[in-house]
Each structure stands twice: as C-alpha cells, then as structure tokens.
Task: structure prediction
Amino acid sequence: MSQTPAARARGDAGSAAGTRAGLSSTARGGVGTSPPRPDGALKAAGEFAFSSDMWMEDMLWGMTLRSPHPHALIRAIDTAEALAVPGVHAVLTHEDVPGEKRYGLETRDQPVLAFGKVRYKGEPVAVVAADHPETARRALARVRVDYEVLEPIADARRAAFDPDCPLVHEEGVPAHPEYNQRGNIVRHQPVRTGAFAEGADAADLRARAAAVVRGEYRVGMQDQAFLGPESGLAVPAPDGGVDLYIATQWLHVDQSQIAPCLGLEQERVRMTLAGVGGAFGAREDLSMQIHACMLALRTGRPVKFVYNREESFFGHVHRHPAAMRFEHGADADGRLLYATLEIVLDGGAYASTTAAVVGVASSLGVGPYEIPHVSVDAYGVYTTNPPCGAMRGFGAVQACFGYESQMDRLAAKLGMHPVELRRRNALAQGSRVATGQRIDMPLPMAEMLERVRAMPMPARRGELADPADPRTLPGGLANTSRGERVVRGVGYGVGLKNLCFSESFDDYSTARVRLEAIGGEPAALVHTAAAEVGQGLVTLQGQIAHTELGVERVTVHPADTSVGSAGSSSASRQSYVTGGAVKAACEAVRERVFALVRERGLVAPDHPAGDLALEGGKVVSAARGVLAPLAEVLGTGAVEETRVFRHRPTRALDPTTGQGDSHVQFGMCVHRAVVDVDVELGLVKVVALDAVQDVGRAMHPRQLLGQIQGGSAQGLGLALMEEVQVADGVIRNPSFTDYLIPTILDTPPMRIEVLEHADPHAPYGLRGAGEPPTLSSTPAIVAAVRDATGRPLTRAPVRPEDIAGVGD
Amino acid sequence: MEFLSPSTWEEALAAKSGRPEAVPITGGTDVMVELNFDRRRPGALLDLSRLPEPAQWRAEGGHLRLGAAVTYTAIVEHLAGHAPALAQAARSVASPQIRNRGSVGGNLGSASPAGDCHPPLVAAGAEVELASVRGVRRVPAREFYLGPGSSVREADELISAVLVPAPAGPQQFSKIGTRNAMVIAVASFCLVLDAGARTVGTGIGSAGPRPLRSPEAEAFLAAEFDWEGGAEPSEAAARHFGALVAAAAEPIDDVRGTAAYRRHALAVMARRAWVWCAADYRKGAR
Result:
C-alpha cells in the first residue's frame, strides 16, 4: 500500500491544545509516535490468547438451542430427553432464569431465553452444559419444542406503516415512553428546519428550485464479520457470584445487564476482558454472557461457550438495512435549497441500539451540507428479521449512501463536477447542522475535497507494465476479461459522523494510574476497564502515561470491573474519553509528585506548579533544570490516582422538530475511488481508494492509518459484496463461503492524507478516527461504478447483475 | 466414527468394499467442513492421504493420468502444459491453503455443481477412473455426474484417477465470482479446441444441477471456427455461439446470483473464450 504518513499535513492548530508545554510530545513511545503495540508480536505469531482459547481443567461446554422459525408461539418445551443424555449437566430454559427475564442495551425487551414467542430465526430457546461439545450438541437435538408457526413480519415498511400489520411485541412491552413509540415503530425521529418548521410542504419549495432530484436507495444488511466468534468462560465463585472472562466492547454495560437476570448484585458478577478478535459494534449486545453464567451457577463448574461461524451470524446484531426516499432541490448554481428524507431502518426482532441509530440517521441524514430547509423522518422498526444494532458508522453509513448518491445525481443534472457541487454546499466551522447545532471545531471540508481531488491518479490501464496481468483486471485470476469492455470510473464520497455518545447520554470513562519506583526506575501502571478490540487503545493508554509522566516503563493492566466503567469501545470514542481519563489521572498523579517535591524541600513551598515537569524519568524545573530523579522522589511509596473523565454534555433531540445540540464532536473523511468495471459481466476491480481525514491529532500515526485503511475496506465490502441476505426472516448466507468480505486482491492501494486541525474541546485536540472512513468509501465506490457504467445503481451492495443490467 | 487407514491401494479397495458407506478423505477440504457443521456423520472415514498412488501423475498414451489426490497447487505448478484449462480452473479454486490440500478427486467425489474442475474435464473429454475390488472402469466425465452430490460412482468404488487428453489446441476456462479471489463460482465456462480432429468441447459449471455442455454450441463452433487461420469471429457468430451456450444452461436463482445473470454471464464468457482461443490459435497453439 502506498499510504504516506510523511504526507500528513498539520493544521494551524496542530500543536494540540491540551498538551503541556515543555513536554516533548514526540518522545519515543509518547503521544504522536508509533510504538509497537504490546499484543502485536503475539498476534502476528498466532500466540495471542483469544477468548475462544480459554480452558480450565474441569470446565463444561455450553451450547445454545435456537429457534428454527422467524416467528412462532412456543406451546411447550420438554428437556427430559436431553437431560438423560450421559455427560449432560444442565439443560436450562426461560423457567430457569433466576432474575429478570429480559435484557437489552437501551430497552430491556430481549428474553434471556425465549418465552411465549420467538421473534427471529436463531433466537436462543434453551442452553445446555455438557462435558464435551459433541455431547452438548446431541442433547440439543433432544430438546423438544412445540412451536405454532406464525407469519413472519419481514417487510419493515409494512411493519411501520400498515395499521393492519401484526405487532412483533405485544402492547406495552417494551414500554419506551421517551420515544414516540407506537405499534412496531421503535423510534420515529423527525427533523424540521426552515420553511418545514413553519409547516411548508415539499411542493412549496420544489417550485422555487431550479433542479430537483429524487431517489430511492437501499442499503443491505451488513455483518461486522469479526474473525473471533462470540466466546467466553464463566467460573462460579465461592461467594455465590461468578467470574466471567469475555470478549466484549464494554464490560460494565454487560455487567449491568447480566446481574439483574442472574438475580445477583452487580459486584458479584466480576468481569475480565478476554482476548477480543474484532468487534465493530457486534459485541455491544450480549450474546452468551448470561447463558454461560446461568449454567456455571447451576452446575458449579466453569462453563465455556464458543460459537462457530454459522452460529455467530445469529449470535450478534447486524447493520440495519435501510430503505430511503430522498429529494433534494437546488438553485441553478447548485446551492442546495431543501431536502426531504424518509429513512426506514429495519431493527429486526429486538430494539438493541435501534433508537440511537435512528438518532444518528435523522440528525446527520442530510450529511455535511448547508441546506436551509430540511425535513427528515427516520424510523426504526421492529420486524421478525434478525436483530440489528451497532456497526461501525451506526446509522450514518446508510444515510451517507443516500445523500452522496443524491449529490452525484444533482451534479449530473446541473452539469457540475461532483466535487464542485459538494464544495459549494460544504459545512465549515461555524455552520449549523440540521439539528441547529453549531459546529464549534475545525471542519475543513472544502479543503479536504480539493486535496483528494488533487491527489495523483493511478496509472491508466495502458500505462501498466502488463495490462494483461489478470490480477489488475476485474475478475482477477478467474480469467473473465483481458480488458474487453473494461471501463474506468471515478467517484467521490464525503461523510459526517458524530463521535462519542450523543443525545444526553452520560458518557464517561474512569482511569486509575499508579506511579512507583521499581528496581530504581520509575514505572507507571494504567488501569481502565476499556476494551481493546484490536483498535490499539492499549498502545495509546501507554503512550499517554509516557507523555504525561515522562516515564519509559508503562504497563497497562488487564481490563476488568475492579475499576470504574470506561464506557464502550464504540462511536470512535475511546481515544477521546478513556484517553482523556488516563490523561486526567496522570495529571493528578503528577500534581501529587510535585507536592512531594515541595514537601521534600527540593523547591520552595510556593514554587509555581507551571515551572515543574516530569521528563525522561526526572523532575525538571524550567528555571533550574533537573531537580531530582523521579524514582528518588517517589522513594518506596506509590502515588495512585483515579479520575473520571466526561466529555461536554449533549442534549436530547426535540421529538417533533429534531432540534438540539445532540453531538459532542464531528468527524469527517473524504474518499476518491477509482474503479475498473467489466461493464458487460458486472465485475469490479477497485484500482485506488484514496482518502483525506481530519483527526485533530494523530496520536499513533501507524495505528491511525490502520483504522483508515480498515474502515475504507469495510466500506468497500458494503459497496460491492457484503450483504446478509434475508428472505422471509431467514438468513440465506450464514457463512464466509457466501457472505463475502474483501480479500487482499479486492483491496486497492490507499493514498491517505491525515489532517490535524485540533478540536479545542478534546484531549490533545484529537478526533475519533475509526468510523468516518466507513461512511464515505461506500458511496465513493458506487459513484465510480456509476461513472463507468452510466447506470443509476441505487442499492448497496451493487451486484454484478445490477452493473450488467441483467433483469432490468 | 471409525477411521480406516489402509496402507496399500489394494487394502483401500478392500476396505471400501467391506464398508461401502465409508467416506474417502484426502485433503479434507469438503469432508471436514461437512463433519464440523454436523451436516454429515458417516459411520467411517477412509483415509487415502497416505497412499502414494493417488498423489501421482504421469503421461499415459495420449493422456495425462492424474491421481485423484494430486493437489490443485501441484496442478497449477506442474501441469499447466499438460492440462491448461484444468490448471486455470485449479488456480481459481479458493485460497492457497485450500489449493494445497484439495484435489480433483475430491471435486469429483463431492460432485457439487459448482466444482471448478468439472467444466474443464467435461470440455476436454476427460475420463474418470473408478476402481473397486471388482475391477477398474473408465467413465467419460460427460457421463459421470447425475445431479448435486450425485454421480455414477458405485458405493464400493473409489475414484483412482482422471485421464485428461493431451491438449491439441487452445483451451480457456473462465469463472465468475462476486469478489476477485477465493470465491465459489456463480457460473463458469470452459472451451477446448482440438485442432487435429477439428472438434470443440464445452463445459458449463454452476449453472445447472450438474456440469453441462452444449453440443449445439460445439457443433456450431466446430463448423464456424477458422481452422486454417484462426480468424477472429464475427460479432454475430460470437453472439450466436454465446447464446447457444447460455441456452444449454439450466440455472436457478440462488444466494450467489440469479438465473438470468448466469445465462448472461455464460454467453459473455463463451464469446470471449472463442476470441481468446482464436488468438491463441493464431499464435501457434495449433
């Protein structure tokens, strides 16, 4: 790949607000450098212990019986025959759930084990613990469930708008009074601005527009496709509680859902993060956590669960499929006048994070454009399809495919270059988004567009060393083209993503930092409950301690619930929030060290704090130079401080106008995709996928590039191949044989420019970086395919038959 | 489950005769997946991976005799000159790891309509050698397949080898997948020309309950192909050839693609294959 860290440009405010003067932020291993990640060598060598690798001598294997029907009443469950299988230690159903029967991230609507009714194919109905997985599997086959099959509620639009459609959940369950809950609608969030807030309708504005474009767009259900399937180990404890070792994104939110269902106090459910093999949102919801704990408590033995790949497709939520109707009007110069959006998100059987996804889709539905008159209606809907929830991009991905497709359509109608149209309507610092929130941080969108447009183009086919090399052609080594009917296309995409948790959520993280002398050297221990899910937070926590405390030896304690909550490894928030907590705890430790310095008489009691610093393992005075080695100041004592860090508060959206400062921070990535399309066979080779992203501060430049490359590739997957195909509530492709994710041959070189315009509100000026590239890469690629084919292509992923125009 | 581990080919035949339900296993790239997903629980596995004969190849009469357990990797690396279309197909199979273990014998044993090796074997007029304690017989690949997962192999027979005629003209194999590597065929097509006999073979994969050919397309191309100079076909002739190939397919709509797209893709692949074969022909591949 031709990513170029050297090419990153620093913005004017790039010296990173919040970094203490006098501390070198580029010290080896500190913030702004790229130290190796502590788990890197183990992972590269295949020696890292993932959650599925855990083992105890006397452990049992847990396994789950799942509903074969998307929608059915449960008349009876008979476990007697299963219990009689030798080697089976327990078979549990909803009757055995010790406490609350339901759990959920936002709405407690999901049964631990189904009772009364199953609402999706794959819903857990019973769990078994046996001394061998094969025994457990045989026992499951002997559980008799008497189902009365009901008609699936498979169409989200019908579920939302047809008053005769049956309800997925009975009246009153789950109650969620803060949203306009009615029928199968989990949440309806309108946004009205300009004339729409005054009651105007689209016809009034249409009459004033020189150009109007309408489109219906669909985004398919995407899977997070993490490589480490759901797994964990529950160990019963002598105090009647349980220790759970688990791959998750947020230990404490798991704990707060597990404990009530087990009928235990929270502190008796102790959790430790096990090795996480990727997450991307799919580990926000519980999977086997409560099941493993129930079986461990019942049998008195450790119980391990590991889903296989097929089960994993039923074990976690997916990205909401979206059906969208967009209309945009602009004047003859391409200045946007109005937009009306209807976005229907299929949430499947249980709410999960659907309400929050609707909040993002509605508030950012029109994207990063100045539009005076906006009307948005976003709906999250219950159906009997697989439950959908968090996935990288979280509601903004779907909307982005819609608005970027519309921008291209409008540019074509006006005869404008797509970049020029976007530039004319670009948001900037000081602009307001559709919710009325003012953007009070740098947002150099116009500059980013110009930069990506100015990047060098990849070689034309004719300029390649060997244009007949099949690896350079759509279809690759499958030998479908030697260049016949291969047409190049170029497309652009921009996305706007909220970073950190929004809509008045109390979003905080806790960090404990301990500084002591070990073997005559100062050493720091950083302890948080933040989940390292592969993104590199563990490296970053060490870097922050290194920079703030001026010590080389930094150890990051395993994440567990013996320290306060760190919040979720979601919403691109951990560098900001847990990074902020580690920084705050380090600062508190540092102040106590300075107090020791004064106590020991190294400086006068009234010596100004601003003169002191910790650098290179020494206490340093700006005026007087080195005062003492840090280890000497610490002596045999330890300095430990715990701090909670909160970002600035946000507000709920008004339920009827969608107005309110609902977001903390905005992130943006801009993509240019270059594709070669076999327009006759409908096959695509992405030739280049170049990006410009503003991250405020590149905390770890190498890991940052990994995030941008990975997010871009995940967006590429959604553009061209990734779709959980669901028909009548049944997943048709629950395997990596038929759910395709990009291989290295599908993933092009990426030229990436990183901008660092500091956000004055954020620690180090940083901006969450993981999600924005996932938004913009999909529409950029689809736009490039449209450019090559001239076809409208209103659906992601684009299928070969769509590109070839077969079945039009 | 019993694990039968014969040390000679004769023992293997005897074991298969004694336990006809035993499932032969060499690379395990199909069998182990089926076992792991609990789709199949045979009473016995018959391990052929330690026997020397199935892993060997040699020229035999005008044929390449390819042991059933010769891996795709070996075919790609060593046999591209002896069986060009088969080598192209082998190169398109799955990932390097799978190609290091999977084999043509396994492809035939599984008899999946999507198997990549079938169209080249059908198009080239290869024969499948079936052995049992009762003796050895050779079945044309064109008659081997009956339907998804089903073939003319008797329960007590093992697939010992395939016999691929030495190339006597240009060959092309093409395969459609939704990504550019490691993908199961949405549709595949193979074209084999015999310049000496002036005959044509076709093979159609992933577009019917079993691998197919198009005798009409073969007859048309045999008559239309410029056997003297290898001239590029006219647009109309190429389109007609493509249409004949597409018409021979019996595709369905499934999770990998639609029937309409499969027919369309076959027509395109067939047209292009003719053009490429003609170019190769002019370049001297007879």
In short: Chain A touches chain B through 37 residues (CB under 8 Å).
